Amino acid sequence: MLLKCTTRHIRIYTAEVKQNELVENDRVLTLDLDPDNELNWNEDVIALIHRKFNDLVEASSGLDLTEYNLRRIGSDLEHFIRSLLESGDLSYNLEGRVLNYSMGLPRVKSQEDEGNYHL
Q: What is the pTM of this model?
C-alpha cells in the first residue's frame, strides 16, 4: 500500500520513481522537495535537506512504517527548512507561481539597511 506524507514543501512516498512514475515499494522512501518551486535552492542546501532526511529515516528505523511516522519526518523537515529560511541559507522564490509566505515574510535588502536582514 502506498503511504505518503504531504506538507507545504515536502512530500514523502513509500515508492520509487521508475520511468517518471511512482511505483509502490515499502522498502524505499522517495522525497519530493518543494514541488511548487516556492523556494530558491542551491546544491549545498539540497544536500543538507537530504542529509537531514536520511538522519530522520535512520532515527525512525525499527518503527512501524505508518503515515503518522512519515508525517513526523515531514514535519521535522519543514521545521528544518524554516530554520534555513531564518538563517538566510534559503530564500523565497519571488518569481514563483505561488507566493505563500507560510514560514515568515521574505528577507529583502534596502539601501539604508545594506548588510542587515529583517524577517
A: 0.80
